[in-house]
UniProtKB/TrEMBL annotation:
InterPro entries: ABC_BtuC-like (IPR037294), ABC_transptr_permease_BtuC (IPR000522). Belongs to the binding-protein-dependent transport system permease family. FecCD subfamily. CDD domains: TM_ABC_iron-siderophores_like. The chain crosses the membrane at residues 12-31, 38-59, 97-118, 127-147, 153-171, 183-203, 230-250, 271-298, 310-327, 339-358. Keywords: Cell membrane, Membrane, Transmembrane, Transmembrane helix, Transport. It is a multi-pass membrane protein. It is found in: Cell membrane. Gene3D superfamilies: ABC transporter involved in vitamin B12 uptake, BtuC. The keyword Transcription does not apply. It comes from Natrinema salifodinae. This is Cobalamin import system permease protein BtuC.
Length: 365
């Protein structure tokens, strides 16, 4: 099978898996809803956005509403569902599931790029301090809202992440070159500093301590469609552009000198890869907090399944990451007491990663 055929077949298969996971997840919770009702409620949310009124006349058979001037306007859905179930699925569960898929999609793709960029199996999206920068921005907005000019925690976290990534890059760059080892060390140093800063803010956060701690654990509770609209365009566009650099990322695995001889503009490519991966990571962390192991474990698993070629590894890891985070978030909210999803990803990711280490499946790239 050709490379294009493999990419298409794997992408279709993983997309079908993601749709199935979404339908099952949307039916689970304190109120159990069957899969058919979930599917119909989802279609209603897509065809007729909740809260929009249409005319009472509908197209026969398929039942699609058509606005007609002069008729009394009421809320009409294309498919008949139980009212409370429609609200639960469309307004409560679907936004959370969509955000989980979006964040998992972006973090897994960014982790794939970082592992290839650093040629290090332990690399993940937070390796240059992006997650720490987002955490510092979010904690500052939560604990000291009067001192932070940004009223939005999401925006404060997003800007904190990007500023940190830029700072690490500026520190590591000398004479137009950015050695990977120096970049890694600069990231470790900045993460240590931000960790101390976050600890200081937490100590002085007062009544906001719990909110700040929960945010840092990674969470998806109280998600709205606004959160999805904040992260989804960044994740989709960022991963799409990263895919255009998949071939160059393959060449970089041979070493920077060999990549240069093969026609790759090494420094420019490194800038683009770092910037795009940082932006995608920042968008995910800004809306969901610090969620670990998605960008570390998922790329390793998909590398074992589809191979190391980033032209297929990148899109498949992104789709697998979306399903992985939807599943783990479903576990996080399915118990008697909801826990932050970052705890579940660690509980699932650590044993699996150790299993890969014992099997010697994790090695230098």
């Amino acid at each position: 099978m050709t490379l294009r055929g493999r990419v298409l077949s794997w992408s279709i298969g993983l997309t079908v898996l993601l749709i199935g996971v979404v339908i099952v997840s949307a039916g689970l919770g304190p109120v159990r809803i069957d899969s058919i009702t979930v599917a119909l409620a989802t279609l209603n949310a897509l065809v007729v956005p909740s809260g929009v009124a249409f005319g009472s006349w509908t197209i026969p058979v398929i039942g699609w509403p058509v606005p007609v001037p002069g008729l009394e306007y009421t809320e009409v859905f294309a498919f008949e569902t139980h009212g409370p179930h429609q609200t639960i699925v469309a307004d409560i569960r679907l936004p959370r599931i969509a955000l989980a898929a979006t964040v998992g999609f972006g973090l897994a793709a960014a982790g794939t790029v970082m592992q290839g960029f650093f040629r290090n199996p332990l690399a993940d999206p937070s390796i240059i301090g992006v997650s720490s920068g987002a955490a510092a921005g979010a904690v500052a907005a939560i604990a000291f809202p009067a001192l932070v000019p940004l009223s939005s925690v999401h925006l404060s976290a997003f800007i904190g992440a990007l500023v940190t990534a830029f700072l690490v890059y500026a520190i590591a760059t000398d004479g137009g070159r950015t050695p990977v080892a120096t970049l890694l060390l600069a990231g470790v140093a900045i993460q240590a500093f931000l960790g101390a800063l976050i600890s200081y803010m937490l100590v002085h956060s007062g009544d906001d301590l719990r909110q700040a701690v929960v945010w840092m654990m990674g969470h998806l509770n109280n998600t709205t469609w606004e959160d999805v609209r904040f992260a989804l365009p960044v994740a989709l566009l960022g991963v799409l552009v990263l895919g255009a650099y998949a071939r160059d990322l393959n060449v970089l695995l041979l070493g920077e000198e060999d990549a240069h001889h093969l026609g790759v503009d090494v420094e420019r490519t490194k800038i683009y890869l770092l910037a795009l991966a940082s932006i995608v990571t920042a968008a995910g962390v800004a809306v969901a907090g610090v969620i670990g192991f998605v960008g570390l474990v998922v790329p390793h698993v998909m590398r074992l399944i589809v191979g190391p070629d980033h032209r297929i590894l990148l899109p498949t890891s992104a789709l697998a990451g979306a399903s992985f985070l939807v599943v783990t978030d479903t576990i996080a909210r399915a118990g008697p007491a909801e826990v932050p999803v970052g705890i579940i990803t660690a509980f699932v990711g650590v044993p699996f990663f150790l299993f890969l280490l014992v099997r010697r499946e994790v090695h230098s790239l």
